[in-house]
Specification:
By secondary structure, this protein is mainly alpha-helical. It has helices spanning 9-44, 46-54, 56-82, 86-119, 127-140, 143-158, 163-184, 194-220, 231-269, 271-307, 311-344, 351-355, 357-383, 388-412, 415-439. The protein has 2 domains: 16-229, no CATH class; 246-449, no CATH class.
Length: 451
């Protein structure tokens, strides 16, 4: 393949793995935090778990916006470092911090004044509304702090200090576990705080994590992100951040809304079908860890080589990470597919549906495999500033083709046919991203305009 023709591929391979392996560990530890929260929320009461779970889509929206900003900061700071312009990289990081703080203040005002209004639209009643409102006002109001933590993690990753992220994630996990256990088991009289106590524990654990990250960065990198930014470059940096962050935010938000839309369609067929769909989401979730990790590591190295104008190396980075992502995520997906019949038997009692379980999980497995390609190629297109057309086509495939087709198919042909419609959507997205990549429009040094 043309991606692997340069005489020094081993250097790129080593850099890819040195970044990706710690990222996989970081993601694995990070995923355990909401699982721990859910376990202790259920221990308090099923009503508390349901109420907090109902506000999860709102918090996911907040997370996607912060993640879009971090995607832009990763890309632009890496390009600046690739050009050996460390001061500009710090300016980009500082501008990202300023933007994150402003977004965090917006969240604080919105959730402080309107949490009750938001929860009233979530279909909750009685005590559940009170629990959800309290949780959302605390965690949502403090989500800017989570955004700062995400930004610091990305700074660590850009400077190839991913081990700091693992320390940070372990701190959050440890504090959450201890604090949640104290609330759930009424240690030191903390049980009276209920779901609000779980929320305050989350904020405390993130706060400690941020302090530790800042300390490690100051000690190792000799600088920490600051709110001081040179005004003459601020407007230019924000234009570049918007060019990367807007497509990087819109696409995931569209996917989240479409998942809800798809679940509504499946629920109209039957409860057992919806249970299988939700089970598949959790079953295949670990299969995406390698793809997410490889997409982040490839984005950083890709942007660095683009900053150096070494486009051959940038192509090799994406080629290797795509190959590794497909191989590892694909192998995990096959393993989960083989385990699906065994696992499904614990959650679904519909015997006819269980006999066809592989026909349900095969299209879902293909979707997850397609995502391993879509993540790597799509994220690097967005990182290069060439994400606008990719996002537009993704929205077109989802809402102009797949959504109306799904409505017609679910009425006429049923559950399994609907899943194959979702497969076609993912395939179309992947094919367009590969086509766009082949056009070479990603060979754009964004940071050169202000360097």
């Amino acid at each position: 393949m043309r991606y692997f023709t340069h005489k020094r591929p081993n250097t790129i391979k080593k850099r890819v793995w040195s970044l990706t392996l710690p990222l996989i560990m970081d993601l694995s530890v990070g995923l355990s935090v909401p699982i721990v929260d859910f376990i202790f929320l259920s221990k308090l009461s099923p009503l508390t778990a349901v109420a907090v779970g109902a506000v999860a889509p709102v918090l996911i929206f907040c997370d996607v916006v912060c993640a879009g900003i971090c995607t832009a900061i990763r890309s632009l700071a890496s390009q600046a470092l690739g050009r050996a312009d460390a001061p500009l990289a710090r300016e980009v990081i500082n501008a990202g911090l300023v933007l994150t703080v402003w977004v965090g203040l917006f969240y604080l005002l919105v959730f402080y004044f309107f949490s009750a209004n938001i929860t009233s639209y979530l279909g909750l009643t009685g005590e559940a509304v009170t629990i959800a409102t309290q949780y959302l006002s605390v965690v949502g109001g403090a989500f800017g702090l989570c955004g700062v933590r995400f930004l610091l993690h990305n700074v660590n990753t850009v400077y190839e200090q991913v081990r700091f992220n693992i320390y940070s994630a372990l701190i959050v996990l440890t504090f959450n576990t201890i604090g949640n256990a104290a609330v759930a088991y009424n240690l030191w009289g903390l049980g009276r705080w209920g779901g609000l106590g779980i929320a305050l524990t989350s904020v405390l654990s993130v706060s400690v994590s941020v302090i530790v990250c800042l300390f490690l960065q100051k000690r190792t990198l000799s600088f920490i992100p600051s709110l001081r930014v040179a005004r003459d470059t601020l407007a230019s940096i924000y234009k570049l951040i918007a060019r990367v962050a807007v497509p990087a935010s819109i696409d995931p938000l569209s996917i989240q809304v479409f998942i809800i839309f798809g679940n509504i369609l499946i629920a109209s067929i039957g409860e057992a079908e919806l249970s299988l769909r939700i089970l598949a989401v959790y079953l295949y979730l670990p299969c995406l860890f390698p793809a997410i990790a490889f997409s982040i590591s490839s984005q950083i190295l890709f942007s660095e080589y683009v900053g150096r104008r070494k486009y051959w190396a940038a192509k090799q980075v994406v080629g290797y990470t795509l190959l590794y992502s497909m191989a590892i995520s694909g192998s995990l997906t096959v393993f989960m597919l083989l385990m699906s019949a065994l696992v499904a038997g614990f959650f679904v009692e519909d015997t006819p549906l269980l006999t066809a379980v592989y026909w349900v999980f095969i299209p879902l497995a293909i979707i997850e495999f397609m995502k391993s390609i879509h993540l790597v190629v799509g994220m690097n297109l967005k990182a290069s500033g060439d994400g606008a057309w990719s996002t537009k086509c993704s929205l077109f495939f989802t809402w102009c083709i797949t959504a109306p087709t799904a409505v017609l198919v679910v009425k006429e042909y049923g559950f399994i046919s609907l899943l194959w419609v979702f497969v076609v959507e993912e395939v179309l997205k992947v094919l367009y991203n590969l086509f766009r990549w082949g056009q070479g429009k990603w060979k754009t040094n964004l940071i050169a305009a202000i360097s």
